[in-house]
Amino acid sequence: MSSIEREQTTICMFADCGIGVGMGHLVRSKALADVFEHFKIKVHWATKKALGGGPSPLETLFQKPVAPGNLLLDCDSDCGQAEAIQVGSWATTNKADWIIIDHYGVDIGYLTHLHNEMSRQDILHNRKPTRIAIMDDHQVRDCALVDARLSPMQSDSGEPKYHGLQLMGTQYLLIRPEFARTLASGSGPREGIVVCFGGADTCQLTGECINLIIQESSPLKKEPLTVLASDTIAAAQDLDRLIEMWDDKYGKPGIRITWADADTMAKLFLTSRYALVSCSGVAVEACAMQCPCVPIHWVDNQDRHAEVLTGLGYAVCRSPQEAVAALAIAKSMDASPIDPFGAWRVASAICGRDFMKEEGFLI
After folding, report:
1. Which among 290, 293, 264 has a CA at the least distance from the CA of 277?
2. At a CB cut-off of 8 Å and minimum separation 6, what does 53 contact?
């Protein structure tokens, strides 16, 4: 073994989550982490605790207790110097080759403190420098401390030359690896509507959309209904009553799922006739499975998704009324411009391997 200490490739993932942010950062980071772990690459996590106690978003996502080596930050953490030093120390303690950051609150000041702490620890313990990758790095575009840009929502057209990895374009959209495997297994007939606005549905879109379908003479009423919503969101929007009304009134089953793992989501989007979703990673997953999909764009942090999906030909809407009307005439894209292999491409670039070839995917 050389004088530089390194036993195996290790990745540290730092992802934002919580009230108002939802789980999107955490879910897409996990999509990349799952590919790493599939190939025996060690992954550690840093994210926030749950507001008010209880299981953290990380525990909810993995459906198991937080593993040793992971870091739970206070839910009101402010992306300040103290947090940057804490995260940097955590990454180097885990002997990380890369720290991959999915957090819009991270700025150049934060990265400077993070880099300095990791450099100090790496030099102290005679380790290779820990490299920094940023997802959707629009807020730190000019930072020379960043070694890889993971920016699938940005075009590389006209971009300046970059000193590190520059992974730009929709071929790098991070979709959970289960979606690639499910699509590769083939599809059958489609039936039903999926409604999913995620944990950040603070505008009561789910209930409003279902109400609109029930009230209007829509062909969508002929379809079974699957709603993804937590108990908290369901109670706030009276969703269980609406779903029961759907079941009783139209003779088609209506169900609510509080949580769906990647396999379940992939199969839902592969077999559903329609999807009404947030303009986020959920919409990207539906599109990758060639499901007729209408995303609703209702918050500013969905602007990039809206721009890209509109450019690819999807009917991105701004209101439930517009979306329900568009959904009734939505059609499948047999050759979707989005495929589910982005996480495999990113992991391959980070590790210098061809994971798609190793897995046997023929693209």
Report:
1. 293
2. none
Q: Are 20 and 200 in contact (CB under 8 A)?
A: yes
Q: What is the pLDDT of residue 6?
A: 41
Identify the CA nearest to 97 among candidates 41, 155, 170: 41
Please check whether residue 9 is in contact with residue 97, taking contact to mean a CB–CB distance below 8 angstroms. yes
pLDDT digits (tens, 9 = 90+) for 83-101: 999 999 999 999 999 999 9
Terminal CA-to-CA distance of the chain, rounded, Å? 38
Strands (DSSP E) found in 280-339: 293-296
Alpha carbons 35 and 53: distance in angstroms, whole number = 30
Would you place residue 7 in the very low, low, confident or very high pLDDT band (cuts 50, 70, 90)? low
Closest CA to 319 of 275, 279, 291: 279
48 DSSP β-pair partners:
73
| Beta strand extents in 67-146 (DSSP E only) | 71-73, 98-102, 131-135
Average pLDDT on 191-212 reads 90
Burial tier of 248 (Cβ tally within 10 Å: 0-12, 13-18, 19+) = exposed
**Angle at the Cα of 132 from the Cα atoms of 41 and 104, rounded to 5 degrees:** 110
The yes-or-no verdict on residue 3 having pLDDT over 60 is no
Residue pair 81/50 in contact by the 8 Å Cβ criterion: no
Tens-place pLDDT, residues 138-163:
667 767 899 998 888 876 655 555 66
Helix, strand, coil tally for the chain in percent (to 5): 40, 15, 40
The H helix count followed by the E strand count for the chain is 14, 12
Instruction: Count the residues in the chain.
Output: 363
Spatial strand order of the sheet with 293-296 comes to 254-257, 225-228, 193-196, 274-278, 293-296
Residue at token pair 């759907």:
246
Rounded to an integer, what distance in angstroms lies between the CA atom of residue 131 and that of residue 211?
Answer: 49
